[in-house]
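**User:** I keep going back and forth on a fold encoding question. It is easy to fool oneself when nobody else works the same problem. Could you pick a protein and write out its sequence and tokenised fold? Could you put it straight underneath, so I can go through it closely?

**Assistant:**
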Amino acid sequence: MVRSIVSVLLLCFVVQFAHGAQNNIDGVRIWPSPDNTRVVFDMKSAPEFTYFTLKNPLRLVIDLNNTSDTAKLSGIENSGDLIKKLRYSTPKNKSSARVVVELNRNTKPSLFAVTPDGAYGHRLVVDLPDSPPKPSPTLSASASTGSVVIDDSTSARDRDIIVAIDAGHGGHDPGSIGPAGTYEKHITLSIAKKLEDMINRERGMRAIMTRGDDYYVSPNRRPEIAREKKADLLISIHADAFSQPQPRGGSVWVLSMRRADTELGRWLEKSERHSELLGGAAEVINDKSSERYLTETILGLSMDHSMATSHDLGNKVVEELKQVTSLHKRKPQAASFAVLTAPDIPSILVEVGFISNPQEEKNLNWSKHRERLASAMFNATKRYFKQVPPDGTLWAQERANNRTHKVRSGESLSLLAQRYNVKVSSIKAANDLSSDVVRVGQVLNIPRT
């Protein structure tokens, strides 16, 4: 009798242990982006999985060992169009779950498990690289002539100055989280969109975004997007955080020389990308024995120019920021941030404040404050490019058409406007002047109109 009772208890223990060991899907999230869609399965414990793909129709099949299939897969928010739907299928055995990802386009999936980190537990991450069909050039018919006009915004003649705006974090990466629960990724995107709007309203400037919505873009991919769009500048927007609530204030960061040298070395090793940086110069480099040395010289000069520009612009951003918020650092700081590593594009990272500071978190949640922060970055960028506009841009052409005048004792803006038969406002605009005050020895650009 005792032996029978022990046997029953042992059997119950084994069953209970097996049941407790079974894994569960606790939740599913989909994060679409322009070039990748990420699916995250929140798991009760570390997932054991295998997968394969099928065609006609396109599907990704994931087998999860020792996992229940009770989690709901329908109704998951998905703003992208790569994934058609998620569903279950007949598993390999009764203790497993088979998840099917129905796809609209072909992709090469990458799956990996992630261990618990912070607020997140065990996860199975599915990355689906995507290349959605590009829209054809916009065609419009002229009502009067019947001619067809192709909307081609890539013309290099008197082109716009292109500013790449990078809203930090996004998607499954929330960035820092404030004491009241504010996500850094939401603050940075809001400021980025305000800055985008200001730049696009300025004649001769155009903004592009590394991310325009709440999705993840890897730090290394962000400068690549800026290069693909032929950006003249990259501004990355972040919010600082610390383990203690006291630190506060904004700061501006540029690439450190140590990281710069490392990145330069990496670029030199990627010979297939030389032409991307060298432009037309690559076509005349025929001597293979000297190609590396010439390439190293040109890339070195390119990076020196980018870093000098970054420092100059960084100083102007600091000047503007101090009128809007307190400063944690009063000069541009150097650090090894991946987003700043484009050797041919001036890049700065702006920390708009400490989201870990309760008062600054409150400020960052105030729309007017975010607008002022965006305005500070815009004003600094405009001031810089008015002084040194990139070759081939509308601003460079306008500057070339301007005359210069060195202010002498007793001269004023109204006197110069009368002498050159232009408006005072035109002189102020050409020199980015905020007041009518000029100093002796100051060199002014005098516009033709």
Notes: The CA atoms of residues 116 and 122 lie 5 Å apart.
